[in-house]
Specification:
alpha+beta, four-stranded antiparallel beta sheet, 2 helices, 4 strands, globular
């Protein structure tokens, strides 16, 4: 299942790359792509794991960019 998240107020391209890399390494994530220009993170993971994946994404983003808000699209 693919899900898109908007990372509001993301303003660091380097941090975006780090976030993308960490999300890609999550066990339940099949693929993840973060477009810095559109601030969209597209994640492919099993539907039954998506709630847990979202929590982990929020934790990763807050660790790298505390002022960024993660919203589902």
């Amino acid at each position: 299942m693919k899900k898109t998240f908007i990372l509001e107020d993301l303003d660091c391209a380097h941090c975006a790359g780090l976030i993308e890399g960490e999300v890609q390494q999550l066990d339940q994530v099949e693929s993840a792509n973060l477009n810095f220009m559109t601030k969209r993170l597209v994640v492919d993971a099993p539907a039954d794991a998506m709630a847990d994946v979202k929590k982990q994404i929020v934790d990763i983003v807050k660790k790298r960019e505390p002022d960024v808000t993660v919203k589902e699209r």
